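Chapter review: from sequence to fold.
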Amino acid sequence: MPAKQPLTSQEETPQEVDRIREILFGSQMRDYEQRFQVIRHDLERLQQELDRLAGRLAEQDSEQSKKLERLRKESREADEALRSALRETAQQLTNDKVDRMALGEMLIEMGNRLKAAVLASDLLQRLDDTTQG
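The token string follows.
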């Protein structure tokens, strides 16, 4: 019986190479493939969660922007109302303000009338005393 000679690499068929590869590395390759599947699944789940959180963040950002704009508008309106009230008060004070000279003259006049009233009351008192006496 002729002795079988080992096959050279040229004579090996691709099927035999795959079979040898399966024998040597098969269990490791299946294990790696399972791990990659789990990692891929986790990455997809994390990406979905990230997308969901990004959507919520964008929604909250939009709400906060709207609230901030409303507050700015309210602040501008309150500021304008306050300025208007201050302008009105300043105008009223300007209109109602008495000139210092006129106020001085008025106070002198009041003082003179008070003096005259005291003198008049003294005169009336003296007349009353003389008529009774």
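Two observations follow directly from the output. The CA atoms of residues 78 and 107 lie 42 Å apart. Residues 14-97 form one domain.
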